[in-house]
Amino acid sequence: MDLFQDIYLKRLSKFIKKNQISIIILAKNSYPGIKKAIRSIEIQEYPSLEIIIQCNPTCKKTVNYIKTLASKKFIIKKIFSKDKNVGDAWNKSLKHVSGDIVGSLDTDNMLQKNILYKINRHFVKNKNDQIIYGNVVLKSKNKTFKFIPDDYNAEKLKRIELVPPFSATFFNLKKLKKENLKCTNLNLADFSIWLKNQKKIIKKVNYTVCTNSWTKLSSTFNYKTYNKYVKARLDILNYYEKKSSKLQIYRSNCYFWAASSLNSFHDELVASNKERSDINRLIKKFINKSLQYYSKNKKTIELKRKINL
């Protein structure tokens, strides 16, 4: 079925304008995982493509590998510079983007084969759409499953009930400015960009865009960074929703999201009793914080009951 779909997409693409697509990769201590990410780009066969690799040169193996990269099929832009964090690296990389469509790829993630044909086709057929996002296959140590996010809803976004997967997101620079893609909070680039663009024309597409690795050392998920990410989400909410009458509910839901996601991946991401104990402490802390902001949060109350805290 995949073979026939690939043939169909290639034949169909002959009659569709091919916008240049830019893929941003932020690399830091990324070797050898980055090899799979690059390979997933190499097999795309999309004819108008550039990749921008923003590399923080702290790991010699990562730097040396990136220096060896070359391609006759697509443009590779390599930027070696120190950055403060992911948001700073993202903002720096935007300066080098020249494509009409922009996406990103974490160094431990992989694009689906020939997905770029589908992305381009969507924006050609739906010229007014500014941002799209799709499904993601999540792989952890013991599980593989498909994450299908809800259709876009700005209120759900602010309630942390919907956080579209950034790795499955593409931006239409024919309808947006680069300024729209700059993050205001450098510690949590994706959520900052989502709230900044919450009123844009955003669509959910019904196909899988990439495969993401979820491990305790993954850039996608690391329980040790949760305190930092929760604070960043709160700062972003305070910045964009400071006049909202629902701000306390948004804050409460932010802590619920942290407790719930930690609880969901509890068994996948711990290797020792100490780590298990650390995660349990975090879950309890986040539940209590959630109820401090909004004591009637039904989801938090149910989670507290479920895990007997």
Written description of the protein model:
The structure is a single chain. This protein is α/β, with parallel strands linked by helices and about 300 residues long. It folds into two domains: about 1-215, Spore Coat Polysaccharide Biosynthesis Protein SpsA, Chain A; about 225-305, no CATH class. It contains twelve helices and nine strands. Strands 1, 2, 3, 4, 5, 6, 7, 8 and 9 form a nine-stranded mixed β-sheet that branches. The protein is globular, with a radius of gyration of 20 Å.
List keywords for this structure.
alpha/beta; 309 residues; 9 strands; nine-stranded mixed β-sheet; Spore Coat Polysaccharide Biosynthesis Protein SpsA, Chain A
Element order: H for helix, E for strand: HEHEHEHEEHEEHEHHEHHHH
What's the CATH H-level superfamily name of the largest domain? Spore Coat Polysaccharide Biosynthesis Protein SpsA, Chain A
Q: What gap, in angstroms, lies between the N and C termini?
A: 48 Å
Number of helices: 12
Which bin fits the share of residues in helices?
40-55%
Low-confidence stretches: none
Q: Using DSSP, what is the number of strands?
A: 9
CATH level-1 class of the largest domain: Alpha Beta
Q: What does the average pLDDT come to?
A: 90
| Helical/strand content category | alpha/beta
**Percent range for β-strand residues:** 15-25%
Task: Note the main sheet.
Answer: 9 strands, mixed
- What's the number of domains? 2
The rough form would be described as globular
What is the level-2 CATH architecture name of the largest domain?
Alpha-Beta Complex
- The CATH topology of the largest domain, please? Spore Coat Polysaccharide Biosynthesis Protein SpsA, Chain A
Rg result: 20 Å
